Amino acid sequence: MKPLLLSIVSALLLLISPLSHAEQSKDMGSLEVHYSALNATFIPPAVAKAYGIKRSSANALINIAILDKNQSGKPALTAKISGNARNLLGTTKPLEFREVREGNAIYYLAEVRIANEENVTFNIDINAEGNRSGKLTFQQIFYEN
Taking every annotated instance into account, which residue ranges of this chain make up the domain DUF4426 (predicted)? Predict the structure, then answer.
């Protein structure tokens, strides 16, 4: 059941990306980091329940996957991920990422409280296996729905 749910989440992220820039990627040397941030109400109830995600218009979900550019097929990598979310008023909220494994796929999920029309800057430190690391910074405006 969980592989099906993960496929649904991945498809959902791809479908809404033209509307909200849901999935993006960044090259960090030999790493290819895919990331997305979206309002948790976009996650179907069954998927949210399976992964312990709180569906609320005041809750955002951050999803990160790390791939190895040096390997054919770009296998997923394990990593230690930490970071924070900061709004324009300077309020900083820590992000606590949890690892999700589905077959060969590895994802890191974190949730953060948001307000309507809140502009949030995410500062995320990635330390992937093989002593490879990098810093991911991106900004997103969230809208309650």
Answer: 26-144
Beta strands across the sheet bearing 105-113 = 24-28, 31-39, 59-68, 105-113, 98-102
Q: Tell me the CATH number at 79.
A: 2.60.40.3340
- Whether residue 10 is predicted with pLDDT greater than 70 in this model: the reply is no
Number of structural domains the chain divides into: 1
What 3-state DSSP class applies to 36? Answer: strand
In angstroms, the CA 145 to CA 142 distance is 9
Range of the domain at 72: 2-142
pTM exceeding the 0.85 threshold for the entire prediction: no
Sign of CA dihedral 113, 19, 23, 120: negative
Cα separation, 26 vs 129, in Å, equals: 17
Provide the 3-class DSSP secondary structure of residue 12. Answer: helix
